[in-house]
Protein: Inositol 2-dehydrogenase
Amino acid sequence: MIRFLLIGAGRIGRIHAENIVRGAGSSLVAVTDADARAAAELASRWSCRAVKPDEALAQTDFDAVLIASSTDTHADWIERCAAAGKPVFCEKPLDLDIGRATQCMRKAEAAGVPLYLGFNRRYDPSFARLKHEIAAGTIGSLETLHITSRDPAPPPVDYVRRSGGLFRDMMIHDLDMARWLLGAEPVEVFARGSALVDPEIGAAGDIDTAMVMLRTADGRLCQIANSRRCSFGYDQRIEAFGAAGMVSANNHTATSVTVAGKQGYTTEPALPFFLERYADAYRLELEDFIGALNGKKVELATGEDGRRALLLADAAQRSLTTGVAVALS
Amino acid sequence: MIRFLLIGAGRIGRIHAENIVRGAGSSLVAVTDADARAAAELASRWSCRAVKPDEALAQTDFDAVLIASSTDTHADWIERCAAAGKPVFCEKPLDLDIGRATQCMRKAEAAGVPLYLGFNRRYDPSFARLKHEIAAGTIGSLETLHITSRDPAPPPVDYVRRSGGLFRDMMIHDLDMARWLLGAEPVEVFARGSALVDPEIGAAGDIDTAMVMLRTADGRLCQIANSRRCSFGYDQRIEAFGAAGMVSANNHTATSVTVAGKQGYTTEPALPFFLERYADAYRLELEDFIGALNGKKVELATGEDGRRALLLADAAQRSLTTGVAVALS
Amino acid sequence: MIRFLLIGAGRIGRIHAENIVRGAGSSLVAVTDADARAAAELASRWSCRAVKPDEALAQTDFDAVLIASSTDTHADWIERCAAAGKPVFCEKPLDLDIGRATQCMRKAEAAGVPLYLGFNRRYDPSFARLKHEIAAGTIGSLETLHITSRDPAPPPVDYVRRSGGLFRDMMIHDLDMARWLLGAEPVEVFARGSALVDPEIGAAGDIDTAMVMLRTADGRLCQIANSRRCSFGYDQRIEAFGAAGMVSANNHTATSVTVAGKQGYTTEPALPFFLERYADAYRLELEDFIGALNGKKVELATGEDGRRALLLADAAQRSLTTGVAVALS
Amino acid sequence: MIRFLLIGAGRIGRIHAENIVRGAGSSLVAVTDADARAAAELASRWSCRAVKPDEALAQTDFDAVLIASSTDTHADWIERCAAAGKPVFCEKPLDLDIGRATQCMRKAEAAGVPLYLGFNRRYDPSFARLKHEIAAGTIGSLETLHITSRDPAPPPVDYVRRSGGLFRDMMIHDLDMARWLLGAEPVEVFARGSALVDPEIGAAGDIDTAMVMLRTADGRLCQIANSRRCSFGYDQRIEAFGAAGMVSANNHTATSVTVAGKQGYTTEPALPFFLERYADAYRLELEDFIGALNGKKVELATGEDGRRALLLADAAQRSLTTGVAVALS
Structure:
């Protein structure tokens, strides 16, 4: 039984809390948040303690930490957990700055503290099956990868300003998928983007529509397409094409209902957003974090995976700005 | 090269004319119709002779006859072709009356004249593949069959009155499919029907919505569902279920386009009606008729197939009227 | 907060236990089972009391009873709960005997005790949406209903012998779906069945393949097809056809993955069996039971619904035996 | 009635011959080919004259020319037709060299001779419906375009050597689709490619796997993916994504059959290659060529469209070679 300290009582924190409580191998002992009321509320919901942030790591009755606080606090928390010798499962990203991200990761390494990152898509059952089929040789040698990722609606411009930009905030998930499914590091990144959805996003110096092309050393190619708006739900699809075939994962829907009429056959839009699409993934990644602490080999992203995805996002940003493809060593 | 005399210059006759002309192994030498102008027009379109009905069989430069005239003339034409020693491909049915149907069929047999019936669905590429997969053992032993057949809109009540009723006019195609795919004769027919689409059809003594259940001697079961109206096109589907799996044929559409939006994903309705859905079937059945004349083994329905389908339709009608299941020897 | 006594610690009991514990509005206080060890194990899993069957209703700290014991004990437990004045949610059926089923239901009525039956399919999100669309008028007036229900594999013959037969054990779910979706009582039942899957089932006097046709007073028709074996998973589909369109619910799958290769495009088989397909339904029906106790209008089947579904199953059995359609008043 | 001279009796020439003969508004008067026997055979099949290449344009009884000869002869034939004042429908491309292509096009312009190019995909019913939906505003403002185009198997290396390379030989079709569907000229081309399918193709200086990214002046983006090998048939898909939705065209299949079994649900692979997938397109583009000669507004690609597609292919080739994105004015 792994006892958890939960850092962050916001939307994602609440999901993790529920999964910790309901999991057969985990329990929630305490929760903390900069907003004391949010912490108290969540603690009350699951009958655990609410603690102040600066007292959180002084607790002794927990085995692991789940960090789901705001992005700008991740690195600090990781370093404090490292100092306390507590294994960490941290929501992505480590940090928006590659230097700071690397630094906190190194501290966890130096302390011998396991550090995993919440790239939850690795635990989506459909994407996990893609990975499995590729590894099993179902499509022969993987040649090209095609990732589509579109949010249902753009975030507030205020959020966009603090987000680090589309590549670091949104596409970073797809960049992790690319590395994970390709099983290799891209050596080149080419990126293009526009503000087609919301001119305010453009005015804030960011983009809302983007395409990226990646290339591996052995010549395999990957396309990624992002949009901050999608009228038919949360569009999350991947297609992996190989010498002997193709595996693809389509969107998920709430039901299997079709309505037929003069207009033709209509099936449901994609699930609305990540809370619905990745509900299973949030639960399964937590199970594997517990498994990892018990020595199981897992697909969880590590701190290093987080750092490498951020490197790709930075390269994409540089390619967008400079207009040229960026080589990665 | 098989030279054809075409009897009937209506909607179906015109389809057959075009297929005869375009086929590599056939030519059209003459066409006749009770309506001399229709015959003349069709003859002019394809540069062949228009002849009067009573002089049609006096021609000598043709090898086979295609009968696509009105239903009540089929039996007479078959008997005249039998007398003239000319092979016949006749649109379904032989006749609406089982006695008359049997009689004309016997005359063709006695004259040694090949007689085939236009149960065109046997040549629909999707249904033909069902037959092939069942024969190939793909689904193991066939256990149940499920046939859905819905017209886009009810015919005029005037047509309904002369049609012989839904079972003889419409479901007879499905009854042929059932016999053909089951590979066995049903020994029991149970039928129910209602006039739900158009009360005028009910007032005319017919039904527009029907279900039939068939059973074979070895206990296999078949469901048929018919409606005279369908808002999403011509609904033509079959599902064959067996010990090791299922094969099913879905509707056909004009394009492979999907429109995604707030409403979900919308694909096209089924093709509008039989001219579109069975365009390939009309062409392929004609090819096989020519093949049959050249000794090829074919899936074409014979006169006997037409007689047996009519027996089933009669039994369905009797079951509907009497309320009990009808046994067939 | 509704406090539950759970009767039955078997496979279904364990599902309900988990849903009771995890539900926001419910808690599990005690569990009982003829097998004391099973009760103790489940009680230990969820930190509640295990009690002996004959002492179960002597407890006072619970508000409702969930009956998930073996079928032959349902009626007794219902009567005991009625005497104790405790609301009941009972797994289907009330009893295999219509007389006994009616009797226990009447006792609950007389005692003013709410009695609901676990026809869980009403809470499958896909079937629930069918009901919703029909009620919303999406397909205009409902004309025909088509229900397919196939188990992945036949149960042991020993189970078959005690089951009451396919109609009362398996098709009763589909008969409830038919009544619920038609929104009317069938006035006629015609049934046919065979032992095509397992001759042992036939030797035991039962069937494993069945078709039923239902008719309502206003002439609407319904087909049901059952098989005790299906190679591609748990085949649970419904199609509702109306004047203005059709709504259908297809099978559910574990992922949205497609594998494309020389063979074509392959998607996943249906979910394996009811535990997977109806996991959501088990959870949602319990929520509505709690809602019902709080005065919410719900879609839960009542004791009377259970009695009427059993009447239809009995009629189907009689039709199979006698060969004629059975009229229902 | 438009009377045709057909230049080229190869695979594509034979398709056009059949469509000319079967079309209601066209007839075939003569055919020529460098291979006199091929010309004679085709002429015999359709009862028209076979003529020698250098005498072909001396004929006077034709109204238009269809050029389906080898690529390196297109420009010459176009110039000769221009001199003879005969309208031309020419298979793509004008020429592999942009200078020569421009030159012959200018001569046709100067002579006032209509010149259309066989970018047949514009007449694929599915892609044509995409164009229609975009124009109709179904998806709001078009933002991104995603084109997948994979051949079933690589051509002989010998062909590859003479082909002008993947961009000019294969992707040029997709580049035309991009221009046509975007309704705007790309201002930037970025291309990457590898020889992953056949090392011989790499040894010949070409690639067999490619990705291209296009950008328009207003920031819209387009991805194109090509492969010379695809295990599941001829993979021809397009997805157009806009502010209000998405329209996509999927592959076409020979039948609507699904096989269900332990493996799941299997539908057919894509149609084998262009002759099957674009059979309708070949017929429809010819109808529109005839329509264009009669003054109809058509979607046919013009000589200028051919030139612009070639400019994009040249730019892609340059981007591949230099490693940088190529700007187009």
